[in-house]
Amino acid sequence: MIISVLNQKGGVGKTTLSVNISASLTRMESRVLLIDADPQGSSLNWAAAREGEPLFTVIGLPRKTIHKEVAEISKGFDYVIIDGPPRVTDLARSAIMAADLVLIPVQPSPYDVWAAEEVVTLINEARIYKEKLKSAFVVNRKIANTAIGRDVGEALSEYNTPVLRGCVTQRVIFAEAAAKGCAVYEIDPQGPAAKEIDNLVNEIKEFIQ
Ligand SMILES: Nc1ncnc2c1ncn2[C@@H]1O[C@H](COP(=O)(O)OP(=O)(O)OP(=O)(O)O)[C@@H](O)[C@H]1O
Ligand SMILES: [Mg+2]
Predict the structure, then answer these.
(1) Domain ranges of the chain
(2) CATH number of this structure's domain 2-208
(3) I need a surface site. Which of 49, 57, 142, 193 has the fewest CB within 10 A?
């Protein structure tokens, strides 16, 4: 199963969700490969910041040939997560063509809702060749108890793309964990951030069945 985490907009949480989804799947005993398709190399930096054993394998592949190489690279893994780059359209296209599911992180802001049009268009173009390609929005950096968190779901409905029920709340633990190359569950195993990520992963598993 290949999941690309993509949005042309920068800073929406592609890397944060990629590493934590990968970690959660690993904790659930799947074999996970994280491909960093972003020339910025944020997932690779995350892995390099870590002391001790890696949780899962991370490789850098910021090339527009990911879709051609992924079958060979992914042998022996249950899940491949592709952390996509912002802005670079040919890389995003390749990451979409490589994927079974494209997850689109969006922040609860009108700017993010507008900016999502670009990636949705790329996905719709890819469906001409890949009919079975799935896609879904995931709301990230939701601020608890605000109407904007609820409204974003409605605003996104114009894109005819499902919005996952599981949201990820704005929490400082995501940055704290990243600084150490850790997943949030390693910092606070029973905490609310780890629970949100696990819920999201369970929902993704259901969604792709
Ligand atoms: N749920 C969250 N709560 C708090 N901070 C978050 C959350 N998600 C992401 N961040 C922070 O927001 C910033 C951007 O996140 P991240 O790097 O994951 O986004 P990105 O989409 O991968 O960015 P880029 O487009 O540059 O690759 C980081 O500083 C990260 O720690
Ligand atoms: Mg990133």
Answers:
(1) 2-208
(2) 3.40.50.300
(3) 49
